[in-house]
């Protein structure tokens, strides 16, 4: 057995043991950064080591410092675990080592990206002519879509930003909901568009369509006088990270269209509602937008890092992200590289293809329904705890709860993490501390939910004792 094969076998053994440990290990990490640094050894050795020994050291030293993100009892952020087919495909992606840039050089990658992209548009109910770019996550997917939108609205106003830059051009008006995700502000910063004008939302975080119409009708502080609306982008949201709520797309998109705006939807996890007949009503009307950002590493449960930038007008995406290089071998109709910011990158679409091929249409719908079902079970269980209140309408996968004031809520959270059955984080929502549960893992079972509710009850009864 050569050294490479020995290292791969070593990694396989550790990976299988790690996954088998998930059902019973504490979900939070049990060691500190300093402890792991000591276990790994901070000194760079002079002499080489065999690959298998390196893998063994890495796995053994890191194990206590790993959070069980792929556990069915991890409910932090909005991140999923890893579908078995996608995880195994990801190992192949590393072994194959395809630089997934050009059709001519990796026909296999281009084929998988083409199929996975078409399946996604179909499942998410988005226009079939759209282009799908595979980014590192939803932050970069939002960036990619908004770059296409920025360039398009400026082009419509006689300004070529690719040639002229932003300085001296007509100001671009960007309007977003008050409860947008902070990744939107980050993407706008990268794009030189500054902070968005904010539109009021209701108590669940849904944009108020009348407030949007009023904002659109009011003059933009920096705009030139005249009857034309000027370059405008409206950013909507499918899935609020606290409430799971969806903007009212039909009304907001109608208002945005009247102002000739580019409409973008951040649907990092929520866009997947459209793949379930039982939950598709939440995303109703959202397909009328111009671009959509979502993640595959959240609801679809593929490994990091994988986001999806979907743009209806494929030429707008290509003119924002496409490039020409004398040493590249490029296809006249565009390459995978023409849809994303990066050049060299791993073959992300292989894992998306594997997850979708493994689940099938029914499996994706069942996955979404299961996550929503677990969220409702959490809400019912928490409402039955003395002193606890569920603060949001549980329409999708998110639950926010209060345990009788900020201090108590924080104490319940601290006890829960300390006990280790589950990982749930706190947040501040509309000025109050909340326990924020996000059900995003394909492997979460009814038993995981009931074990977690038991742990929440234990933590609450201890926290309430004077
Ligand atoms: C997670 C999330 C993002 C950012 O996505 P990353 O994949 O972490 O880059 C943006 N918007 C919403 C609504 C999200 O939930």
Automatic annotation (TrEMBL):
Keyword Transferase found: yes
Sorted UniProt keywords: Aminotransferase, Decarboxylase, Lyase, Pyridoxal phosphate, Transferase
Pfam families per record: Pyridoxal_deC
Top-level taxon in the UniProt lineage: Bacteria
Gene Ontology MF terms: transaminase activity
Coiled coil: none
Cofactor(s) needed: pyridoxal 5'-phosphate
Family stated for the protein in its record: Belongs to the group II decarboxylase family.
UniProt name for this protein: Aspartate aminotransferase family protein
